[in-house]
Design brief:
Blueprint (H helix, E strand, L loop, with lengths): L2 H5 L6 H4 L7 H13 L6 H4 L10 H6 L17 H4 E3 L2 E5 L2 E5 L28 H10 L5 E5 L8 H11 L7 E6 L1 H4 L2 H4 L2 H12 L3 E7 L8 H12 L3 E8 L7 H13 L3 E7 L7 H4 L3 H12 L10 E6 L2 E9 L2 E9 L8 E5 L18
Parallel strand pairs: 3-4, 4-5, 5-6, 6-7, 7-8, 8-9
Antiparallel strand pairs: 1-2, 2-3, 9-10, 10-11, 11-12
Helix pairs in contact: 8-11, 13-15
Length: 372
Amino acid sequence: MDWKKELKNNIVSVEQLKQYYQIFNKDAHVLKKIIDRHPMSITRHYLSLIDFDDPDDPIAKMVIPSIKELDITGSYDTSGEKLSTKFIGFQHKYPQTALILSTYRCAAYCRFCFRKRMVGISKDEIFQNIDRAVNYIKKHLEINNVLITGGDPLMLSTKILKRFLDKLFAFDHIDFVRFGTKVPVYLPQRISEDKELLSILKYYSDKKKQIYFVVQIDHPREITPELIKAVNMLKRRGVILNNQTVLMKDINDSPDVLAELQNKLVSIGINPYYVFQCRPVKRVKNHFQIPIYSAYKIVEQAKAKLNGHSKRFKFIMSHKTGKIEIIGIMNDEIFFKYHQAKDPQNNGKLFKRRLNKIAGWLEEFPVIKEES
């Protein structure tokens, strides 16, 4: 079936969900209220991965709304995207990278989305003018790569994706383009059944211009035969795949689960890239976030079960000041390093904070007096 037609079969209402999932009448009204604010959409493929007999099924928790989403503790812009926006839909936070918010739509909606403020809701922040982006990139020779994200850019037509590649790869100083996507997880046939898309990817790869897919696989059970088929098709067209995972409470906050995920990724040719500390997003923070102290312990215990290839990922907090690697705990201090900084002078900078075992974000750690 055509992937666009398949999306029309998504589960989008409480009434549809009731056919598969036990929802008590007292909860239905609350869930409808949540969906009105942050839409639900679940592909039939992803629905088939849920064990509806397990009330704690991690796959279900990632896409089915929860009353915990009524908690508005946190922020809708935890990484300072507004401050990095040069014009609508175009961000330039790090010197080498331009970011394009290409769409507000996804194949399915993650309940833990860090762009919960806009995904599935509003076009107000979405990129509108490719020529304006082209002119900006032309003037900024320090930009050597572009990340096309959203939403999920693979929700755009193949024709539009080709136009992005045509325009961006016309620049000699653009070495590669990345697409941030969860389509291989939610709707793998978008890739495996689109011969035109595969042909375009191969065309650019043959021209020695590198295309990356930054996929988001958060649990080993998301690695299905359908996903593997799509991944293999991408690899044969020269696409390199990296994975980023969000560490989440009751989803993958087990050293065994996290290690299994990284090992499976490597076994199918996907490079572990980042494991992200869950951001303190409104309607997400108290639902999914784990204290950094506990998260660090989980990551290190998982690494002990991994080989060199499967533990190449960085454990990262994507902060408004940059990507901060969480590198260690000693006595009552926790140590950080700027893996990538908005202010280039901070790149590689090591710093520490007083340990707070319940802190989930940088600001919650006390500054040590000697650094103040």
